[in-house]
Amino acid sequence: MPSAAIPSHPVVSIEEARALEAHLFGGQERKEWGAMQRAGRATADAALRDFQEIGGFPAAGRLLVLAGKGNNAGDAMIAAREVLERSLGSTADVVFAFGTRALRPLAARAWRDLSEACRGRVRATDADGLAPAYDLCLDGIFGYQYRPPLPAEALAAIAAADGSRIRLRASVDLPTGLSEPGAFRADFTYATGSVKVPLIGCANAGRPRYLDLGFFGDGEAAASGGDRVILPSVLGVLGGLRPAASDKRSQGHLAIVGGSRSYPGAVMMATLSALRSGAGLVTAFVPERLAPAFAAQAPEAMWVGLPETPGGGLALVGLEEIMAVAGRATALAIGPGLGREPETLALAMGVVRGSPVPLLIDADALQADIVRAGTAPRILTPHAGELERIAEGTELRALCRAVRGAVIAKGPVTRVCAGDSVYHCLCGGPVLARGGSGDLLAGLAGGLLAQAPGEPLAAACRAATWHGTAADVLARAHGQTAVRTLQLLDFLAPALREYAACQGS
Predict the structure, then answer these.
(1) What helix, strand, coil percent values describe the chain, rounded to 5?
(2) pLDDT at 178
(3) Which of 101, 294, 326, 452 is spaced 20 to 30 A from 169 at the CA atom?
(4) Does 460 share its domain with 324?
(5) Which helix (H) or strand (E) covers residue 425, if one does?
(6) What is the radius of gyration, based on Cα positions, of the chain?
(7) What phi-psi label fits residue 125: left (phi over 0), alpha (psi between -120 and 50 degrees) or beta?
(8) CA angle centred on 444, ends 438 and 449, rounded to 5°
(9) CATH code of the domain in which 282 resides
(10) In terms of domains, do 90 and 178 share one?
(11) What is the pLDDT of residues 185-213, one digit of tens each?
(12) Whole-number Å distance between alpha carbons of 361 and 377
């Protein structure tokens, strides 16, 4: 399946992480200290940014640092210094799990810098001296050098932190203890320099975030194979200038098939999202009773009402009209709100089997026989239950090979798979745990596929990243609770602007 190179970095094993850092630093303290400074600053930036989801770090905030012996402790203390220097009314408590005498040279240097730069606002304490509450806790006890089991000193430090009320709990690189009993339970884990294998799927990691410190060369971003993490630069093509001679036909034409009496909103949400994707034309095929009201709500789309089944779904007789338009489109999306009536699923089978253009298959159209029909390139967008249904016992890579397409496997960490590569999307969060967020992703991915029909994998990775980044920007602006799913659409443009601002800084 031809596709543009996906900007990404590999997910590395612990052994590969050691070898990478040995190659980069060569045992030179100056280079290690520079990397530690970058890691600490990046961790502080990320923690303060993510804190905006719960109202922002307070002017007189309280910070707790759990420090081990080595580089993770140094990263955490440098991050603490950054936080305190940006919030001059804040204070920090540092718990040294193994005592200050056990600190390795760079960690000891980070502690000296912290205590001197923030004199009077930082204190070293033991597990018995913690305050009842903290705003932010930084876990820097163990990183990838950790070997189980957890020592008693680390368990005691974590247990003491668990006894305080903490608004946001963050781990540096990996949560201490990983999945062992008594391990640190993070809300966010900031993978510094590289994403290590134990982070993927770790229940105590919370929301993993990748802090790219420049450890990888340009060649790694163009490579493929294995497990990889998508870089924000996958969005770069979306935020630039379009050709001056563009017209609506040069920006792609997406045809969407969906909707039913039982699920009218899903196809509307997918269409609204497709209209925000940058596609030049969007045609939506829906049950004829829905078309007039939908056209009034979103007149930019071309709404085509099709004959209905007695149950309110799309009737098979509409297949010919869909296929007539599909030949003029550049991509076709089917599934949002479709329903599972046998006649409607027969229509979906006919569309997928005969499509002359790349497809996006979503929701009720995700049936094992339908996704394997036809020869057109495709993107599938299953959630966990749908993935189980269509995989029929095979693993994700085998499913991708069987359907000859890309799969966006939605979840707390969304995975995009094609061939032998699995790309992890480390953005987005619980604000997406709402009905309709998948419909928005389907419309977005379909619209991007229409604009780049020869690059289904790239369209899938861009859609997952754009969707997740917009969710993060939405949550930072309005929190995770009192929002509506459709508000995400208003943050697609700010997400691209935020990416562009980060690239320009």
Answers:
(1) 45, 20, 35
(2) 97
(3) 101
(4) yes
(5) strand 421-425
(6) 25
(7) beta
(8) 125
(9) 3.40.1190.20
(10) yes
(11) 999 999 999 999 999 999 999 999 999 99
(12) 11
The tally of domains found in the chain comes to 2
pLDDT at 496: 94
Asked if residue 126 and residue 18 are part of one domain, the reply reads yes
pLDDT one-digit tens code per residue, 136-167: 999 999 999 899 999 999 999 999 999 999 99
Mean pLDDT, the chain, whole residue set = 96
Contact 315, 308 (CB under 8 A): yes
Element (H, E) at 255: strand 253-257
* 437-457 exposure pattern, b = at least 16 Cβ within 10 A, e = fewer: bbbbbbbbbbbbbbbbbebbb
Residue 193 lies in a domain: yes
**Boundaries of domain holding 368:** 241-468
pLDDT tens for residues 1-52?
334 689 999 999 999 999 999 999 999 999 999 999 999 999 999 999 999 9
Q: Examine the pLDDT at 221 and tell me if it is beyond 80.
A: no
Task: Choose the final residue of a domain: 223, 251, 272.
Answer: 223
Residue 505 lies in a domain: no
Helix axes 29-51, 14-25, angle to 10 degrees: 120
Q: What is the CATH number of the domain that holds 172?
A: 3.40.50.10260
- The domain boundary residue, chosen from 162, 192, 223: 223
The verdict on 448 and 419 lying in the same domain is: yes
Residues in the chain: 505
Strand order in the sheet with 207-211: 122-125, 91-96, 62-67, 133-140, 165-172, 188-192, 207-211
45 vs 72: CA distance, rounded Å = 16
Of 84-88, 125-129, 152-156, least confident by mean pLDDT is: 125-129
495 within a domain of the structure (yes/no): no
Q: 416 - beta bridge partners?
A: 408, 423
β-bridge partners, 359: 332, 378
73, 43 contact by CB (below 8 A): no
What pLDDT score was predicted for residue 2? 38
pLDDT value of residue 504: 57
CA dihedral (55, 206, 21, 180) positive or negative:
positive
Question: What pLDDT was estimated at residue 1?
Answer: 37
347-367: per-residue pLDDT in tens? 999 999 999 999 999 999 999
Q: 105's torsion region: left (phi>0), alpha (psi -120 to 50) or beta?
A: alpha
